[in-house]
Amino acid sequence: MSPTRSGWCLGRWTYSCVDVVDGLGEDVSHPVRLRHLQIPFSWAEEVFFDDISFSTEEKTLISRRPAARLGADPLFVRDVQVMSSSDPLTVHMTLEVAQCASSLSLFRVAGTNGTALSDTSKLDSLEMTGADWGAASVRVARNVSASPPPSGTWDIMFDGRTIAGVPTNLTAEGMTLLLGTGLAMPGMIVARWGACHNLHWNVAFRHHGGRQPLLAVNGSGVLFDGDNLQVGVWKDTTSGEGGVTHPYLPADLTRQPLAQAALQVQVSVASVTGQCASDCQVTYDAALNSLVTAVTSEIEDDTGDVTVALTGVNLGSTAEGVSVTLTGAVATRSCTVTSATSTQVTCTANSVQAGRYNVTLTVSNQGMASGGGSVDVTPLLTSVTPGQGSPLGGTVISVRGRRLPHALAGWQFGEVTVGGATCRVINTTSTASSCEIQGTVGEAATAADVTVAFGDRSTALAAAFSPLAENAVLSAINESDP
To answer: pTM value?
Structure first.
């Protein structure tokens, strides 16, 4: 086998061929399993493989052409950006190189005195002239220079162990192998980012859960020809402290319930049930449960104050130990308890908006009472506009007042009627509700009542709407050609 070499590649591109069958030292007539392939290389070098193949036939290997090279040393250019301007003629060039480029030579113009200089990597500018240019010249200036890469070695300390002589440009693979063998902790994963003077290694402990001691470094052996160099260890604030994780346990493997048949309190943290170290039994007695058997109410129409009386058993003994809540479609109100005995509780809620409210009672140290009831509250009506319209329906009226439902959901258990016709609510605020009359109001020229009802409670404005005596009449339809 012979390689085909295209292009220039450091003069170090090579290949190796191994006869696996001959290496077995015996006649092989059955398939062979290759379980491990190890390719040795230096930790301090970036190594790239063009091709790895297994074949019974001769292979031709091609070294791929690298990027453009500058200077006598291997310096590969990844990208070039050029900008120019006139008056005077100026050309700006930015080079992005693959390796550290702190000693990049200045550009020189062919046919000038600049070509006689062998090394311009330390110069910030260069003035060049030609033999027949006269007084003309070309000036090349270095606007930005990269920081030089550090050199030398540094030491890593961890849990009483020290790894000395770590190269400053060690690859991620090299650092993974070095830490795994030097610290006797296989399973460590290292990622590296940065270039030249700004290198970072991130170390993750994959096979050793829990909190790990912090790595320490000694950078006294690192050499740096720049302004500032920091060598240290920083904990990744997003990685946490490690620990042992497990999926949700399908059974309470961490808890041993007591042998008694009584109910027990169970406390879980992150889906793991805690162990009951003492008496965690709960006694339930239905006879001690609070029960509401009846709910009655009185409403002050002008203010909207509602007094609610609840009757039942085990309703508490003091007003401070009982709470009552009125829950409506669009609002929840607290009802202040004014008196309480074991069989009756009385509370008051001020300025309650119209609607139906479910009544719930809670007793301290006993919880929410069973049973309950509801309270219907009507608004205070003041006017209706317009006060007249068609006796056959279709008129939109505005019913004004106080404590009207401020949202359409509040009309879920309420309705508006005009005479004998339903009026469908289409818009509402706490002071005015608009509705459209849906049917025949009544006899013409006979005023009708406008009524708002919630459940068995209602309030009305008497003779607030008058059907027109002379309504519009459609007498004929004339059809014409378009």
So the answer is: 0.43
